Structures are given as C-alpha cells and as structure tokens.
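Subject: Interface between my chains keeps coming out wrong

I've been trying for a while to get a sensible model of this assembly. When I model each chain on its own everything looks fine, but I need the whole thing in one frame so I can look at the contacts. Pasting all components below, labels as-is. Any help appreciated, I'm running out of ideas.
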Amino acid sequence: MNEFTGWLLDLYPSPGHGIALWLICEDGQRRCLYQDFPVTFYAAGRSHRLRALWAFLRKQPFHITLARTERRDLFSGSTIVLAASLDQPSTLPSLFQTLTRIFPDLTFYDTDLHIALRHAAVYGTFPLARCHIVTDRQDKICELDVLDSKWDIDPKSPPLRVITIEPDTDPFHNNPQKILVRSQKSCVSLDLNEDSASLGLLSYLLKCADPDLIITSHGDTWLFPLILKLAKAQKRSLPLNRDPNAKITYRKARSYFAYNQVIYRGQQIHLAGRLHLDIRNTVMYHDYGIDGVLEMARVTSLPIQTVARVSPGTGISAMQIVTALKQEILVPLRKEQVERPKTTSELFHDDMGGIVYDPIVGLHEDVAEVDFASMYPSIMVQFNISPETVNVGKKTSDSVMNLERITAQEPQGLIPQTLAPLLTKRLKLKTKLISLSKWDCRYKNYKANTAAYKWLLVTCFGYLGYKNARFGRIEAHEAVTAYGREILLRAKDVAEDMGFRVLHLYVDGMWIKKAGCRTKQDFQPLLDKITTTTKLFIMLDGIYKWVAFLPSRQNKKIAVPNRYFGVFQNGDIKTRGIETRRHDTPIFIKETQIKILEILTAAPGGMQIASLLPEIETVVREKETELRLGKIPLEKLIIHQTVSRQLDEYRSPSPAFVALKQLKKVGKSLRPGQSIRFLYILGKQRSRAWDLPYTFDPRTVDIARYWLLLTRAISAILDPFEVTDEIILGKNKQLKLDL
Amino acid sequence: MGNVTPTITDLLHREQANLAKFRRALRREDQLVFDDLFVAAYKHRAAAAYAGHLLPFETFLLAMQLEDHKEVLRMRREVDYLHSQISRLQARQNE
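Reply #2:
Try treating it as a single job with all components included. I did that and got this:
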C-alpha cells in the first residue's frame, strides 16, 4: 500500500486500466495512478426495443452489466430505463456511436459525458484538487479523498512547472525562422532551418524541464502539427505527452454561429499527462489569463485543456451536469422539450428582454452608477427559477409584480443549486477586492477569478433559453427577465421617490444624480432602501466626476444606450461603445483616443476643460503630423474584422472582401469566424490584406481615410464638450477639406 | 436565445418605413417636423417595449404626444416666468 498527497493534474480513460489520474505529489514527483471506474449509461423507450438493446449489448465482446431500473428525468419525472455499466470508460464513445445508428428510436441518457464530470460527481474531484490517495502495489487507487473545496477562496496552489513555446513571428503573416522555448530557468531559440538538431534539442528540453503545462502561441494550429510532422519524418520520438502509452488527441477546426456572430475555433491538440494551452486558440484568455482558466477548470470540473478552449456556456452546462449526476437525475443527450404553443398576446408579454432606456444625451457631473450584483443569476437563486420549477403555482404576471415566487418553494431547482455557491464565492471575492490594494499579490488572481465567474453567470441565463441546452426551458428564461424588469423599475421608483434623477437604466444598472450627493455615504441610504424593496443586493459601482452619454452618429437627436464614457472620482476611465472598445479600430486610433481621455481626467468638472485644450490640441497635431509623414508603424494601422461568411457569399466589394480575395490568390483562405487583417490603401482596390507575402510600399497608405477615422474618434469624445471643431481644425482650415 | 418577436426598435423602423410615402409627399419643412416626431418615439422605446402592446404604433403616438406635452409644459413655465418678470418690472416702473 502506498499513500500520496498532491494535486490532480489530469484525468482520462486509459484502455485496460479504467482511468488514469496524474498527480503532482507534494514530494515533487509526478505520478500516474490508475483507478477502476465503471461508467453507466441509460436508455428509455418502448419495451420491445429495450429488449432488443439488451440482447445487442449482451453480445458485445467486453463486459457490460445490465439492469432494469428507475431514474428521474428532470422534466417527466420517474422513468423506467435500461442501465448499462461498462468497466472500461474508453469503450463508451464508439459503442454509443453504434447504438445511435442501430437504435435511433430510443432515448439515451448519460452517454456523452466527459469522464472528468462523472468522476467529479462520484468523488468530488476537480482539476488541481488536493487529494489524498491510497494505492495498491500496481498503482491502482483503493481510496481517494479530496482535501479542499472548489469554493475555497485561497486554495493552496500546486507548484506547476511551466514552459512557453512560440514562433518568432505570426505563421499566418510570415514564415517563422525560429521558435523560442522559455522555462523558469532558461530561454532557448531553436532554428527551424536546422530541424534535426532543433528537434533533438526540443526533445532534450522537454525531458529536462518535464513541464506540467506547455503554453504555446499557435501551438494548436501550426507549431505542434509542424514539429510532430518533422518528428515523424525523422522517426524521432518527441515527449510531448507525459504518458507514453496515451495518444495525442486532435479535435478538428470548426465555425459555428452563436451570440449573433460567427465564431471560429481552430484545430485543437490535447496532451496526456501534461497540459497544452494555445493562447491563440483559447476562449476568454485575454479576459482572465491563465489564473482565470485554472479557476474555470476548478469550478466547472472540466479538464484544464478543455475548459480553456470552450465557451463559458459549456462550463456552466458542465456544472449543471455534475449537479444532475450527483442527484441521480438523467442527463439527456440533447434538449427534449419544445416551447408550448402561445398566443400572439402571450408572446408580446413574455418574450421581452431587460429594460434599456435611451439615456439623457450630454455631459453630466457627479453621477453614481449603481447595479445589482449578478442580477439574473441572483433572481434564479432567490426565486428558485429552474426548468423543472417554473409554471407551478400562481399566475406568473401577478406573482412577479408582487415579487413572489412563481415557482415551487421546495425543493431547490437544479439551476439554483448549481449557481448558489458560485454566486456566494463571487460576492466574497468582490467584497475582498474592495478592500484590497492593487499591489497586493492576490489582487490579480481575485480579479481574474471574478471575471471568470462573471462569464459563467452571464451565460447561465442565456443557456436557460438556448435551443440546444440540455437543461433549458424558455419559460424559465422569460421568468428571469420578467423579474429583472420589475426589480429595475422598483429601483427606479425608489430613486425618484428619494429625489434622484434617473439619467439611464440598463438591464441591471442605473445612472443617477441628485444635487449635493457626491460621496458614497450620500448614496448609501438609497442603496439600502433598494435592497430592502427588491430583496436583491445592489452595489455602488462608482461615482463619476463626469460622464457623457453620446448620441447616434446618424442622428444626433437619438441617444444610444451603450455609448458613453466618463471619469470616476478615483481617476479610472470607463468607456463603452466608442472606438477604444471596438475590435476593428486600428491601435493608433485607440491610443490617441485613450491619450485624450487621460488628459480629460484632470478636469475637475465636466465643463471645466478650457485649461486642458492646448494639451489636447498638441496631441492631435502631433498625431496628425505623424500620420501625414508616414511615421506611424504599419502594424498600428491594421484593421481587424471578423470574416462573417464564405467568400462567394459577399454581396458588396467591402474592404474585407477585397482583402480576402487577395489572400485567396496566394493560397491563404480564411473561414467564417476567423479574423481578417488589412490596411486602407490608395487606388482601385482600396484595401490590402496584411498577410500577403510580398512587400508593400508604405507610401500607398490612404492617409485621408485614416485621418477621417481619427477625427471621428476624437469627435466622439470632444463633442460633449463642444470643442471638437476648435481642436480638430486648429488653425489649419485646409484640413477641413480632408473631412 | 429566446427572442422570436421583433424588437421594439424593429417595430418602430417598420412603422417609419410604412409611412415613407406619406413623408415623401410632405413639404421639406414638414418632413423635418415628421422626423422630429419619430425622434420622440425613439426616446420612449423602453416604455413601449415594456407595455407589450399588440398595436405598438399607439404607444409610439403617445410617446410623440408625451414629448410634445413636455415641450408645452416647459414653454408654459417659461411664459409664466417671463410674465412674472414683466409684472415685476411694471411694478417697479409704477413705483
């Protein structure tokens, strides 16, 4: 008997051994242990078909335990099912593919679940969980105890060994000549022109460093495929996998439509026994970094390599699956419910989102921004909204108006059960963050974690109404927004009753002001009253020295709900909907806009910027000169746009279309969801793809076009101060012609 | 996501498009006033959406009226203020 304590790094099916678990042991060793872990799936349907399935499964070459049993379907209640348990989890995927072909009329449950989620439901494990394990002499696990909780605020971190590998240039733009391998102790440059020696060195580095985590740039789509191809050609073994018996897992590239946009996911390469993260092929990495990825893995129980590459929606779905498995609720393969028929009138009343005002356009001083903390998830928990609990009891609209539950009080639904600990942890972290200095070593980690939770909580609401969600139900989705509208209107009423002017309402937040109110204490009575009235916790996001709500560019009389910028009393700038926030704005324009905003932060009040005008004008003239003299690096002029369709589906010759066509000519094609990079140039073509191989004359850059973009960005932030013309035109009236 | 009904902004655009021929036949100065009326309707999209009225154009008309009445009230306040100023000046002159 052996005993080990350490952190769970990886977990996957291992043919012949049940499952393999990799442990970062406290003594520094990395150990691969095995565990018997039978998996069970269920089938429901007509009796004679279930009997046929029984007979079919009995004939399989591997051991399957069969039983007739009763399980709970979340929607239809207790169901008679055929339970099939397999000793080797690795056999389930291929068996299930056969079953869906032969028995398409049966309903299958618990068939496509990740092994890590099944393990989490049985043993309470999660990635990087601290475990105490007892094994027999063959390294088979006899006992497994998890020593910490995924809801701990400061869990003891494992001593991860990390190396990064990246090419010297973007492979889509240029042919890389070198790859750089960095570890905690060294930085080595490998020459790709001498591939034999470089591969040998890389192999040596991997063996020496034996990393737990390999962070790459373009590793999924370019680097690993290249080095694996070279290794194969040279018949050289490359220890990318830590487990020599396991194969590297490939997942194909795909484009799909979600959240009103086309999203592209490149090919994925997953390793066994150590982790691979390609920062260019991860979701939300730019938002919360490696800390956020690790925390997402902890709370969702999905493996780190998977969670980094999937949307938060998949994460929240995984959490729901673990909750369901723990309670022996059947997990359907896909959504089984359809929306019940509704009258037009019902649709008009129920199918609504949150309340969004048109803000009062212009500049406002001493404005407080208050918002409900995680409003929609809090509503789901507070009012027990879950697919299986809605439409039980009283009439929806009356109950919502009285802020009563429209759902059964007990038992707590699947969704509230899943969300409650996540909400509590986020609130604890947010409260800690308020009192934490930005220089505290925990600050960055807490920030990343709260950002990760935010995405999980945001998508949880969307998943209630998502057509493919396993535990979705549109009526539950609608109930959440109904409560949201009622609560926000109540908050508005309270604010107005207390003499505040409501400048803007946006789903879960309000922008309010009142003469004489400038400090947190001035707004506290209002917050307390709203919390009492609405039963939900509302927080002060900050007090703006000034904030400007902007009008539409097309019609200056019409406000845009999510286009504003302002400066908080602590000097922080908040911007929404302007150029700095847009993905397609060239860096040069973003930088200029931010620079002007930073100058504006010095203004004591919104209308007192006269003293700052010379400084702003200097910046504008400097940037204009740099642009006209060609001193702006071309990289800073690149426009990024997401490819929204196939090349032959474009109807007009937009700059993106022209650039895509140019790339296609040189054999580089982009799929919908990928990003196209181009420059505006003079001449008939008007745009030039950045990733073309041949050289380019920088004198052909369309300066007037960039000046127009720059003036628009400057106008957006100077218009509210009514000084735009003065700044942009300056003394040189000739510039007006360029506009 | 769940939405299957058109958004309030879509409905407003549709109503505006339905009246495009009416607008075209107006004099230029009336066209500008017509556009202003729709700006008023845009300002109250949140309330119109919340009302969930089956005939949203009625709520748009009410929004136009509401903005008009706000303007009337504002001007009435201004007239009252000017009246009070005039009365004060007259009183001073009489002294």
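Reply #3:
Confirming on my end. Chain A touches chain B at residues 344-345, 347-349, 351-353, 355-358, 462, 465-466, 474, 477-478, 485, 489, 505, 555, 557-559 (CB under 8 Å).
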